[in-house]
Amino acid sequence: MGEKMLAMVLHGPGNLVCETIDRPKCGRREVLIRVKAVGLCGSDIRTITFGHHRLHYPQVIGHEIAGEVVETGNEAGQFTVGDRVYVGSIVPCHRCEPCRRGWHGLCENIVVPGSDIPGGYAEYMVLTGDMLDRGINKIMPDHVSYEEAVLVEPLSSVYACQKHIDITLGDVVVIIGAGPVGCLHVELAKLRGAGLVIVVEQSTKRLNMAKQFGTDYVINSSEADPVAAVKRLTGQWGADKVISACPALEAQQQAVAMTRKMGKVVFFGGVAKGTLTPLDTNLIHYNLLTVYGHYAYSEMDLRESYQLVVSGKLNAKKYITHTLPLREIEMAIKLTRNGDAIKVVLIP
């Protein structure tokens, strides 16, 4: 009988089971880590609830991972036992056309822990040879906690988005949605020099939590018209850049309506599959708006986001409102959905 471990195993949409399963074995080109922290991501909640087209069930999900090396294969060579490791969450092929153009998050052969291979919702996890060869796995300095490190992955996507639309000195930026991603957008926009950051959110609890990340104004969209409020705050001009960071059709409509002439709109949060957002394209046409979709990030975005966290320039600790044992994931999901948590980190 091999050694066993605790894991949360997804058997299908809505069927997440806490199980004792075989501990993975470490191959000659692999590294075995003891998972020390794994972040609960909004995409994980969607996958648990609705499934995901990339998954082969049963699967151990979880892609925001940090852990300690406990075993190395004799041909692995990259790490030694005892190393504290941040595990990068994308493994691009570096051969397809998107990879050749630097669009690693759009790799046509991408491997993602927790989707294509077992992820971090377990006590132990293998870093495969492909992850070691083509992924980004960093030895963490002692002053950075495992819990802080899991913020690197969501920050990477936020970082890539703001770099792409060039949020810069003096910009008026609106973030629609004050979940963990929305709060990261607030702090990063301020770090990049935004002059005015406005958060739109319908949850009072989330609005109150968002204030600590540097937002200048908050608008409760359940009590006020956010488009009118943004126009009022900007002398009827509108915002330079608006990021819709929530899965709501109305938020995308509002984003277009509150952007100034020749401004930029980003659809950061995907909407439910099969739904379509009715947009007033005359606003886009006559106001010369640029509308971007945003998803994922490149290897360089992840590296730079890692440095932001490790350097302390972005305070990852502030986002972690709850730390719970892995087996209490249902409570973690509840806390996230009802707005009591910004970021929940699970400890296997």
Helix/strand order: EEEHEEEHEHEHHEHEHEHEHEHEHEHE
How much is the average pLDDT?
96
For the record, the count of structural domains works out to: 2
* CATH class designation of the largest domain: Alpha Beta
Radius of gyration: 20 Å
Give the strand tally: 16
* Strand residue percentage: 25-35%
CATH architecture assignment of the largest domain: Alpha-Beta Complex
The rounded distance between the terminal residues' Cα atoms is 22 Å
Q: What global shape is seen?
A: globular
CATH topology of the largest domain: Quinone Oxidoreductase, Chain A, domain 1
Contiguous low-pLDDT stretches (5 residues minimum) are none
Largest sheet: 7 strands, mixed
Q: How does this model look, in words?
A:
29% of the residues lie in helices and 26% in strands. The chain is an alpha/beta fold and 348 residues long. It folds into two domains: 4-151 and 314-347, Quinone Oxidoreductase, Chain A, domain 1 (Alpha-Beta Complex); 159-293, NAD(P)-binding Rossmann-like Domain (Rossmann fold), CATH 3.40.50. The strands form three sheets. Strands 3, 5, 6, 7, 8, 15 and 16 form a seven-stranded mixed beta sheet that branches. Strand 15 (320-325), helix 12 (329-337) and strand 16 form a beta-alpha-beta unit. The mean pLDDT is 96.
Structure characteristics:
Quinone Oxidoreductase, Chain A, domain 1, 16 strands, seven-stranded mixed β-sheet, alpha/beta, 2 domains, Rossmann fold, globular, single chain, 26% strand, 348 residues
